Amino acid sequence: MPWKCPQDGNDIDDNLVTCPLCGYTKFPPGVALVSDATGKEVQARIPTTFGAAALKMLGDPEVKYVASEQFKLEKRQDQGGWAVVNITWATNPLYLNGAPIPPEGVVLKQGDKLSIKDKFFRLTVRLL
Questions:
Q1: Is residue 110 part of a domain?
Q2: 72 to each of 5, 16, 47, 109, 117, how far by Cα in Å?
Q3: Which SS3 state, helix, strand or coil, does residue 25 take?
Q4: What is the CATH number of the domain that holds 55?
Q5: Structure confidence by residue, pLDDT tens digits, 68-112
Q6: In this structure, is residue 79 part of a structural domain?
Q7: Which domain holds residue 77?
Q8: Residue 9 forms part of a structural domain
Q9: By the 8 A CB rule, do 48 and 55 touch?
Q10: Can you give the pTM of this predicted structure?
Q11: 63 CB burial (10 A radius; 0-12, 13-18, 19+)
Q12: Residue 1 to residues 11, 12, 108, 113, 122, Cα–Cα distance (Å)
């Protein structure tokens, strides 16, 4: 179902998050993290810290590589999206699309790939 841009009134395809006319970006109400191994997902609609306990429900045996606190999802209103930020004391760092996440975090896009050390516990980002 299309959405209406609040800045110019243009009807935008639901698969797009940015208005092609004015550049307005629709802030996604939440993020789903989908396990590549099992297809199960966990959702966040508020800023949340994720670790092994919360991610165990995905049923991926590679959850053993996830720290008790691994990463945070934060709302970044000024950047128009949700950001992922590593917990600095986690033993195995989280990667985004095959690269280490910088200390300040990165705003997520539809289809982004998260993984532990770019090898384990692979998740696909789905913006809600």
A1: yes
A2: 29, 25, 7, 16, 16
A3: strand
A4: 2.60.200.20
A5: 999 999 999 878 799 999 999 999 999 999 999 999 999 999 999
A6: yes
A7: 29-127
A8: no
A9: no
A10: 0.82
A11: buried
A12: 10, 9, 22, 26, 30
Residue 64: helix, strand or coil by DSSP? helix
Domain tally for the chain? 1
DSSP state for residue 55 in the 8-state scheme: H
Instruction: Check if the beta carbon of residue 36 is closer than 8 Å to that of residue 124.
Output: yes
Res. 15: pLDDT tops 80: no
Q: What are the DSSP E strand ranges found in the chain? A: 3-4, 11-12, 31-35, 41-44, 48-50, 71-76, 81-86, 94-96, 99-100, 106-107, 113-116, 120-127
> Is residue 19 assigned to a domain?
no
Lowest mean pLDDT among 1-10, 78-87, 94-103, 115-124: 1-10
